[in-house]
Design a protein that fits this description.
The complex is a heterodimer of chains A (about 950) and B (about 140).
Chain A: H1 3-59, E1 64-65, E2 70-73, E3 79-81, E4 86-93, H2 102-118, E5 125-134, H3 138-146, H4 155-173, E6 178-188, H5 200-218, H6 223-236, E7 242-243, H7 244-264, E8 268-271, H8 274-285, H9 304-307, E9 312-313, E10 319-321, E11 324-333, E12 338-340, H10 345-348, E13 357-365, H11 368-392, H12 401-417, E14 424-434, H13 441-463, E15 469-472, H14 475-481, E16 499-502, H15 503-506, E17 524-527, E18 533-536, E19 548-552, H16 559-573, E20 578-583, H17 589-595, E21 598-600, H18 626-639, H19 650-670, H20 685-694, H21 700-714, H22 728-731, E22 736-740, H23 749-765, E23 779-783, H24 786-792, H25 794-804, E24 812-818, H26 822-825, H27 833-839, E25 844-847, H28 855-861, H29 865-872, E26 881-888, E27 895-902, H30 906-912, H31 916-928, H32 934-944, H33 948-952, H34 959-969
Parallel strand pairs in A: 19-24, 19-25, 20-22, 20-23, 21-22, 23-24
Antiparallel strand pairs in A: 2-3, 3-4, 4-6, 4-8, 5-6, 5-13, 9-10, 10-11, 11-14, 11-15, 13-14, 14-16, 17-18, 25-26, 26-27
Helix pairs in contact in A: 4-16, 5-6, 11-12, 18-19, 18-23, 19-20, 19-21, 23-25, 24-25, 25-27, 30-32, 31-32
Chain B: E1 3-5, E2 15-16, E3 19-20, H1 24-41, E4 44-45, E5 48-49, H2 51-70, H3 77-87, E6 90-92, E7 105-106, H4 123-134
Antiparallel strand pairs in B: 2-3, 4-5
Classes of the chains: A alpha+beta (about 950), B alpha+beta (about 140).
């Protein structure tokens, strides 16, 4: 073999080797890439499958879908349910009849029963929902709205008032108060000829096609889901549409029943508008929401989607509706064996229930003929059972007493309903209790604890009705029942909690009574024993028809505290208000000191006085009013010792006529000497004496009386207190003047009587200022310890009586404070006619704790038994609160409400207190710290003794604290 | 205030062997079924005809069952338990896929406003869809 052949073969072999190895590499690479591609493909499909699973999960989340029976809201504001029925809702004005006469309350419930009886269509559901929640300060808001601008109110009072208001606001924020409202929901089943059948067989027939459809969609693996879904769609949430004309016909038929019930209802109803209805139902279904979105104006829109877009879950004794745990307490047995009106006050006026809950009472109307037949069957069954027992029993006395009692009850009931005199109705009552919002586990635990406690409170509240049995619903029952407890989801389906009785009996279960809501523009805030925060306005003529108020409370009954509170709040709220107080015993001294008012006293050394002849307008030469002349005459008669008791005698009448003539003449001479740009010339006692000396009558008898009067009055010529012009200190203007009557005790009897009368005349004449626009500002006159005036100054009572009837027109309110009613009207043995006359005109009464018999008060003002019971049950907690019963208005229109004056501020307590130990403490601190302003003294005491000495169980302060503060400061 | 009677006993069921008179029909039905069905199906156990004791057993079981669901329980306890069982512990929120968008008013005859749109849905249906998504 030649060399070239060898080289050629070798080269070919090398090339073949390279090619083969390259080919092999390529094959290997190809195989690997195929493998990688396969793996990637497998990965992608696995991922896709997983994604698809997740996507399916998103569109089909765990659990059954929440359902709703509400399909829409029509143009009239009725809820249109999925079964074609309608619901109309109303806001109800709850009557404040807690203290009304029993007959009135019975009448209200009887009318309510008549309304229930009048709903003849079977299956109508009438639901009352009493919603309660922790009040965040509705009355405070109203009060702030009513408050005049800061520049028009008295700043020191405003500051003290703000301190108290801050305390009240704090208490409201802590949930110390409750607010409530009542709504009425009426569901009327409406059937139209075109509606689909609701027969069970038809439903079953509809179920199977739906089930097959669902099975098709969800697959055989989700067999159970398909059953539930199709069951829900065909049975629980069967929806259907009516043609517009049919819908209108059905709606009109329901509207007729609504109108009939509105007409029969004894309560004031305000139908919800379409927007209100939407808001109510939306917020009830969506607990996490605070505002409802706009409702589509298109009638016929399905609302189930927005209503059910919040989960309801849970398997314990509470459910989570959104972020809120919720539970239901049901009344399993009604009050037995008897029920009375007002029993549901345990729910509407209960201080322990100041948290969010809704008391629901539902009435379901029955087919009366069927109900009677059922009753008859029941009677037969019982008779059969009874006969069987009797047959077995050796002695007839061993008969089953339960069956016997039931038989007897049925017999009575059948007798009652015979002839359509009464109707049977089904009722059920339950309370939905809500917890606080819980967004995490810690909050949930806390919220559920509170919910448990709240449920206990509700159970015990319902348990206070004699014979009633209430309990929290079990987990299963809660899950089954809660959906139909939501507002708008009312349903006549049986829950097992129904009681059947006559409408007259079951009407008593309605929670319609409420506490008085107070004034719409309150100047003083108070709280009721049920922890409702309300307020009153003494200047509101719609509530206080007469401008005279009465404040009665025994010793330590909180009289001075209430008076001080009214004064402070009124000064801080009402535009340019002026207050005049006639005090006895310096009870208002600390208030005056704190507010910078004037405390006016009569001191024999100072010789400052009030001239009875002086009046507003004298300076400008305006002639006096007849009332002013009357004051002067009465003062003169008093000084001349013409006794008021002798007013019917000829001499007294003669004397009065002569003095009236003289006074008129004096004014005729003296008033023209005054005028603009002229110095004020006040007529005085001296002028009267001159007139008496110079005037001559034709009749000798008249002349004799004139001479007698002149001699009697001559004693006071140049007297510094009787015959002197008004001192500047009394003539000045001030928002708060307090006249101290006790300071008159240092004067002789006639001067004392005259000065007291002059004080009262001046106070009474102090009408509000006339503003440039012609309006007159308000005025508050207060007479403290009236017993002193009726006993020692009868003329004063006559003056108040004369004025109090007309003061309202001038915006003046007179408040009389005393301990007992007898102080003003006298006893039956020795009545005070003027006092009785005065009391006939009282527009508002505040009655505090009464130590003695007050039957005359009850008789005079026609108080109901409930008001008397409320007065009897007054309890004061010194340092915390004092209780009163307020009665606004008179006669059959009076409105009573028990309330508490809670100061909510230690500073107020120390400013108002009239307790002897606390007064001493105030004086002692002022003595030890003479350079301190009274407000500083009150603040120091408030800081160290926030509940007062009485509240802390002390009788004196620890003075070392005063100096310890000083040392610390040093 | 005036007292009014509350006669809560009147609708108490008449009970025999712990079974209310209204439930006896079910007891009879179950007992009958317990007796007749094995008889029809001719079921025998070790040569002994089963209907000899299934009827008695069905009677005892149904009486025991009705006692169980009534004694110490609140009214309709069984029904509530069943309902709770069926609905489950979780009532989930409605989602768009549930398609809760059914009109409850329909026009008697097709109006000019209700013409078909490009998506195949009527105008009123479109408006409802907008409404539905708006508040999700």
């Amino acid at each position: 073999m030649d060399i070239w052949t060898i080289i050629g073969v070798g080269f070919s072999a090398i090339l073949a080797g390279v090619g083969a190895s390259f080919g092999l590499r390529l094959l290997q690479f190809g195989r690997k890439s195929r493998q990688a591609a396969d793996a990637r493909q497998a990965n992608v499909s696995a991922q896709t499958e997983s994604d698809e699973r997740l996507r399916r999960r998103l569109s089909r989340p765990v659990g059954s879908r929440r359902t709703s029976e509400i399909h829409g809201i029509n143009s009239l504001g009725f809820l249109r349910h999925t079964d074609g029925s309608y619901t109309k809702a109303y806001a109800v004005e709850m009557p404040a009849t807690l203290y009304a006469a029993d007959a009135e309350v019975d009448r209200l419930y009887n009318d309510w029963a008549r309304m229930l009886q009048s709903a003849r269509q079977a299956g109508c559901l009438i639901q009352t929902r009493h919603d309660v929640w922790a009040d965040s300060g509705r009355a405070i808001h109203q009060h702030l709205k009513a408050q005049a601008h800061a520049k028009d109110t008295y700043m020191p009072a405003r500051m003290l008032h703000t301190v108290g208001l801050t305390g009240t606001e704090g208490a409201a924020r802590e949930g110390g108060f409750q607010d409530d409202r009542l709504t009425l929901w009426v569901r009327v089943p409406a059937r139209h000829d075109s509606d689909p059948s609701r027969a069970r067989l038809t439903r079953l027939a509809r179920f199977f096609p739906q089930f097959i459809k669902e099975l098709h969609q969800q697959g055989i693996t989700l067999f159970t889901n398909a059953i539930f879904t199709s069951w829900t769609q065909t049975n629980r949430e069967q929806v259907f549409a009516r043609v517009r004309a049919a819908e209108r016909e059905a709606s009109n038929a329901a509207a007729q029943i609504f109108a009939h019930l509105e007409h029969m209802c004894p309560l004031t109803l305000r139908p919800f508008t379409r927007a209100e209805m939407w808001r109510e139902t939306f917020l009830a279904h969506r607990q996490n929401e605070r505002h409802a979105p706009m409702l589509s104006p298109i009638e016929g829109t399905d609302l189930r989607q927005p209503l059910c877009s919040e989960e309801i879950a849970g398997h314990g004794q509470f459910l989570m509706h959104g972020d809120y745990p919720v539970s239901v307490v049901s009344l399993f047995r009604p009050p037995t064996p008897v029920i009375t009106a007002g029993m549901m006050r345990v729910m509407t006026a209960n201080p322990n229930l100041a948290f969010r809950h809704t008391t629901v009472v539902e009435y379901i109307t029955l087919d009366q003929e069927r109900a009677k037949a059922h009753l008859k069957d029941q009677h037969k069954d019982l008779s059969r059972a009874q006969t069987a027992v009797s047959r077995k029993s050796p002695t007839p006395g061993d008969d089953d007493p339960e069956a016997q009692a039931a038989q007897s009850d049925i017999k009575n009931l059948r007798a009652e309903i015979a002839g359509g005199r009464e109707s049977l109705v089904e009722a059920r009552a339950y309370v939905i209790v809500y917890g606080e919002q819980a967004r995490n586990r810690v909050e949930l635990l806390r919220s559920v604890e509170r919910l448990d406690e709240r449920c206990r409170h509700v159970v015990s509240a319902l348990g206070r009705m004699p014979g009633a049995d209430a309990a929290r619903e079990s987990a299963q029952a809660l899950r089954a029942l809660y959906p139909q407890c939501i507002a708008g989801e009312l349903s006549a389906k049986r829950t097992g909690r129904e009681f059947t009785e006559t409408t007259r009996s079951l009407a008593r279960l309605a929670p319609v009574e409420a506490v008085w809501r107070g004034s719409r523009n309150p100047h003083t805030l108070i709280s009721t024993p049920s922890n409702h925060l309300i307020g009153f306005n003494l200047f509101d003529a719609s509530e206080v028809p007469s401008p005279l108020g009465l404040l009665l409370a025994g010793s330590r009954g909180g009289k001075s505290v209430l008076l001080s509170e009214i004064i402070t709040n009124a000064l801080a709220t009402i535009k340019k208000l002026r207050v005049r107080v006639v005090d006895y015993g310096n009870s208002q001294e600390p208030l005056v000191a704190a507010l910078g008012g004037r405390h006016l006293k009569f001191d024999p050394q100072e010789r400052a006085t009030i001239n009875i002849w002086d009046y507003e307008g004298l300076k400008d030469g305006i002639p006096p009013a007849e009332l002013q002349k009357w004051y002067v005459v009465q003062d003169a008669l008093q000084l001349a010792r013409v006794d008021a008791k002798e007013s019917e005698t000829a001499y007294a009448r003669f004397a009065e006529d002569i003095l009236t003539l003289m006074v008129r003449e004096v004014y005729k001479n003296e008033v023209p000497r005054n005028g603009k740009d002229k110095p004020k010339q006040e007529p005085r006692h001296e002028h009267l004496l001159e007139m008496l000396a110079t005037y001559e009558f034709d009749d000798p008898e008249a002349d004799a009386v004139r001479t007698q009067l002149r001699i009697a009055l001559e004693t006071f010529r140049s007297d510094p207190f009787i015959d002197a012009p008004t001192s500047p200190q009394f003539a000045q203007e001030s928002p708060l003047d307090v006249y101290e009557m006790k300071s008159l005790e240092n004067f002789s009897d006639r001067v004392r009587q005259s000065l007291a009368f002059r004080i009262v005349a001046r106070v009474i004449q102090s009408e509000g200022h006339r503003e440039p626009d012609g309006t007159r500002t308000k005025m508050l006159l207060a007479f403290y310890e009236m017993w002193e005036y009726t006993r020692n100054y009868p003329k004063i009572v006559a003056a108040i009586d004369r004025y109090a009837r007309t003061g309202g027109k001038e915006g003046v309110l007179t408040l009389l404070a005393t301990q007992a009613f007898k102080d003003i009207t006298g006893t039956p043995e020795a009545p005070n006619p003027i006092g009785h006359s005065l009391m006939s005109n009282v527009g508002v009464k505040f009655i505090g704790v009464q130590s003695g018999d007050y039957a005359d008060l009850v008789r005079k003002f026609k108080f109901t038994e409930s008001v008397v019971a409320a007065i009897d049950s007054i309890k004061n907690a010194p340092g915390h609160y004092s209780e009163f019963v307020g009665i606004w208005g008179a006669g059959s229109h009076q409105q009573a409400q028990k309330f508490r004056v809670v100061l909510n501020s230690a500073l107020k307590l120390w400013t108002y207190t009239s307790n002897s130990d606390e007064r001493n403490a105030r004086r002692r601190v002022q003595f030890l710290k003479p350079h301190w302003h009274p407000v500083q003294v009150h603040m120091w005491l408030a800081e160290h003794y926030p509940t007062g000495l009485v509240g802390a169980g002390l009788t004196q302060i620890d003075e070392a604290l005063l100096f310890a503060d000083e040392q610390r400061a040093a | 205030m005036q007292d009014h009677p509350m006669r809560e006993r009147i609708y108490l069921p008449v009970v025999r062997f712990g079974v209310p008179h209204t439930d006896w029909k079910y007891v009879f039905l179950v007992t009958f079924a317990g007796l007749v069905l094995p008889f029809i199906l001719n079921i025998k156990l070790y040569g002994i005809p089963v209907p000899m004791f299934t009827g008695t057993l069905a009677l005892a079981a149904s009486v025991a069952f009705f006692n169980f669901i009534r004694l110490g329980r609140r009214p309709l306890w069984f029904q509530h338990t069943l309902r709770a069982l069926f609905t489950g512990a979780n009532n989930r929120a409605a989602i768009p896929q549930d398609d809760l968008n059914e009109w409850w008013v329909k026009e008697g005859r097709k109006s000019s406003d209700d013409k078909e749109t490009s998506g195949g849905k009527s105008r009123s249906q479109e408006a409802a869809t907008v409404f539905r998504f708006e508040y999700l």
